[in-house]
Structures are given as C-alpha cells and as structure tokens.
Inverse folding.
C-alpha cells in the first residue's frame, strides 16, 4: 500500500539554525499538508499546498516557515531560524482531492525536531 | 474557525467492554468528520470518515461513528474492544467543499484496554 514517507525521523538542531524537513507524498496525490504536535498537545495544522502554491496556512505558519515542492516527488518544510518552541513532531500528509470521498489525508510517520 | 472537543482524555476499559468516545465540533458550515488512530510507535491512520449521506459510518476494525448534526457530535463506538485497540484516538474536522482545508484535531483520547 502506498505510504507517505518522511526524513529524517529525528532531527536535533541548535537554536537559530535552519532545518529542512522532507516528505515524499503518495504519488498520485495532489494536496499536501504539514502539521505539528508539541509534546502533550494536540495536532495543529500549519499549511496546505496545491498546484505549486500555498493554499491555506494557520497563524502558526509565520515568516520563519516556508514550503516547497522542489521536484515531482518531494515536499519540504523549512524553518529558517529555529526557536526552542519549534521543538515538536512534524507530520506531513497528502490527499488525492480536497473534497468528497477522496479527501482523506494520509499521514507520514513524522519527524521529531528537537531544538537545543 | 473550527474547533473540536474530545471529552475523555484517558479511558481504561477491560477487554470485551463496549466503547464510546465523545467528539463535538464547532463550525458554522458543512463539515467533513474523521476519526484517526495512532497505535504506539506508529503514525496516524484513518479509522473512518463522514463526508455526506448516511450519518452512521463504519470503519476499520469494527469501529463505527454517528454524525448527529443537531448536536454537532461525531461519537466513536465499538461494541467489544480488544487489547490491540490500545491507542490514541483523535477526532478531526475540516470544512466541506473545495480548497485544501487543513484538519482541526481534538486533543485526543488515550485508550488503554486491560486484558
């Protein structure tokens, strides 16, 4: 069964450093998403992406964050200058469509980001 | 903006007991509703979803949920739980219609099934 994959599984970085989290969505999916889950808190939506541009973003997704689909398979989340409070599990998801029966979002296993 | 409320944060049941996990949402428009499960050490997986039609939806592993529009609820049920159902359960909602609308999740319910 096709899966969303994410790399790395765990990333440790120093405060102020840039990190890039990578995702490979399911191949025939058109909609891509990033979420985060701070330890002990709920999963929060960050951004959605369709047709090579941001479709929607939450108030968490400020200027420190950016997303890109650099080629036909990868979908990346960049945090320009990490802060301690960016420590969280980051999940990538993809869906075939945005509405109707095929709007199910398939989630990757997550990248645990630790900012020291 | 949507919000989702899950009433039970921790639930402990014995095997073969019946399960009902509560979920209420707040949103003024038409919604899609989901229950996701996260087994220990694994990623989020979809249990079931409602987008239109029959408000009683059946999912994988014997789970079902009923959408009651008048109560803004989408409670998850299973008549007889197994030890392997131990997991974190998340209710989620997004706006129906076009656009890549992100999911709004509840805080989750940690379910422990005792043998």
């Amino acid at each position: 069964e096709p899966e969303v994959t994410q790399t790395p599984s765990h990333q440790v970085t120093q405060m102020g450093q840039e990190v890039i989290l990578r995702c490979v969505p399911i191949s025939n999916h058109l909609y891509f998403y990033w979420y985060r889950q701070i330890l002990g808190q709920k999963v929060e939506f960050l951004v959605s992406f369709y047709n090579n541009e941001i479709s929607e973003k939450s108030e968490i997704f400020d200027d420190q964050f950016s997303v890109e689909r650099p080629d036909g398979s990868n979908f990346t989340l960049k945090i320009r200058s990490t802060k301690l409070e960016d420590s969280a599990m980051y999940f990538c998801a993809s869906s075939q469509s945005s509405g109707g029966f095929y709007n199910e979002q398939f989630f990757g296993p997550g990248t645990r980001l630790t900012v020291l | 903006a949507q919000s989702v409320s899950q009433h039970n944060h921790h639930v402990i049941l014995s095997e073969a007991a019946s399960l009902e996990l509560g979920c209420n949402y707040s949103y003024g428009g038409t919604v899609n509703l989901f229950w996701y499960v996260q087994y220990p050490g694994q990623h989020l997986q979809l249990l079931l979803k409602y987008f239109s039609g029959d408000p009683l939806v059946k999912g994988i592993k014997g789970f079902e949920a009923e959408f009651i529009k008048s109560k803004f609820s989408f409670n998850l049920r299973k008549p007889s739980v197994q030890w392997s159902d131990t997991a974190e359960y998340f209710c989620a909602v997004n706006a129906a219609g076009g656009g890549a609308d992100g999911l709004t999740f509840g805080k989750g319910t940690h379910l422990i099934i005792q043998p």
